[in-house]
Amino acid sequence: MTYKVKLKNANKNILIDDFVYDFFTNDPYFKSIDFINQLRLHSSGCCVFQKTWKKVEGSYKTETIYLHKFIAEKWLSNLKTETNNLVSCKDGNKLDCRMENLVWRSRAVASRQRKTNSSIGYTGVYKENSRYRAVISINRKSVHIGMYDTPEEAAIAYNKVSKELYGDNGKINTIKKRSI
């Protein structure tokens, strides 16, 4: 079963498995800090618990727990390796913290899976004069794929090379339909 938990500072919900919900609502420490009801949307798009505590000597300590990372470290730690040591969400939804959606990835794979911030709207596609260049990164070097008449053609070319090079770990652009 899946639980939807409303975030404290946003009109959004996180998704967690029932046994994860039970853990946070029954564990003495997490129950004492009302963990499940204090979850917030972080500026990174992730779900976090964040609270500042006053120490005995008067200074302050901020405790930050990233929900997806905590869940992966507690229940999926056997899948973590020296290279696959970053927690990601398979579907890209950082608020879906169900076990089936969490995966350990390498920094390179996580970088390839990141959403694009390109003004064109496609990873690896750049406008040059009236045409579009497709490029892909191979061993930290930018490699030219080709020049195309439309950004969609360039994105399709990028997708093909990304799939050939990286398989399921490659970034695949979602092609938008052009309006006529």
Shape: elongated
Main sheet strand line-up: 3-4-5
Major sheet summary line = 3 strands, antiparallel
Number of helices: 5
SS elements, strand count? 10
The percentage helix is 25-40%
**Which structural category do the helix and sheet elements fall into?**
alpha+beta
- The ordered H/E elements are EEHHEEEHEEHEEEH
Average pLDDT over all residues: 89
Distance between the termini: 45 Å
Overall description:
By secondary structure, the protein is of the alpha+beta class. The chain folds into 2 domains: 2-110; 116-169, 2-Layer Sandwich (GCC-box Binding Domain), CATH 3.30.730.10. The protein is built from 5 helices and 10 strands. It has helices at residues 18-26, 28-32, 67-75, 107-113, 151-166, and strands at residues 2-6, 13-17, 39-41, 47-54, 60-66, 86-89, 102-105, 125-128, 131-138, 141-148. The strands form 4 sheets. It has a 3-stranded antiparallel sheet. The mean pLDDT is 89.
